[in-house]
Amino acid sequence: MNGSQVDVPRRRSPFVTLHVDVELLEKADKLNINKSQLFRKALQLRVEHGEQALLNMMELDEVRWRVQGLKEEIRVYKTKIAELEDQLQMLLPRLKELEEQEKIYQRAQMLSEMFLILRDICVDHDFDIDSIKVAAKEVIEKIKTAMPEFDLEKHVQRLKELIL
């Protein structure tokens, strides 16, 4: 075998060393990308169909990944919206109840103030109905707006009995 050497093709190792940015590998790991499968598929596509086919496949995968991400984000937002709508539906009756209580409180507060003013006017005008009607015209109108059943004569009579 000294003089005639036969070249025997060396069997190549199936392992290949690639130089890839560490940050890119970390991102691929987070996305659960099978790097061996991706490389095989990309290499096969490039060899068999050319560079444009590889670029198209890469863009297709990217768009699919983005669409999936958007669908997931939409699902998360829909869930959040449903939760917020449930909370809103639970709060609306309470809001209505509190608003009604506020109206009642405001009405009572206004009537209290008007009756105090009317009392002072009644005393200042010696419980004379005609002069009270003139002096307390606006106060009486406000009271009657809130209490249509208000009877000035009866009120003045009761007030007079209590004070005198």
Give me some keywords for this one.
164 residues, mainly alpha, rod-shaped
Structure description:
The protein has 164 residues and is mainly alpha-helical. The chain has a domain at 50-163. It is built from six helices and no strands. It has helices at residues 22-30, 35-49, 51-124, 129-135, 137-146, 152-163. Helix 2 (35-49) packs across helix 3 and helix 3 (51-124) crosses helix 5 (137-146).
Order of helices and strands: HHHHHH
Number of strands: 0
Q: Give the count of helical stretches.
A: 6
List segments where confidence is low: pLDDT < 50 over at least 5 consecutive residues.
none
Shape: rod-shaped
Cα Rg: 44 Å
Helix content: over 70%
SSE layout and pairings?
Elements: H1 22-30, H2 35-49, H3 51-124, H4 129-135, H5 137-146, H6 152-163
In short:
The protein has a domain at 50-163. The protein contains six helices and no strands.
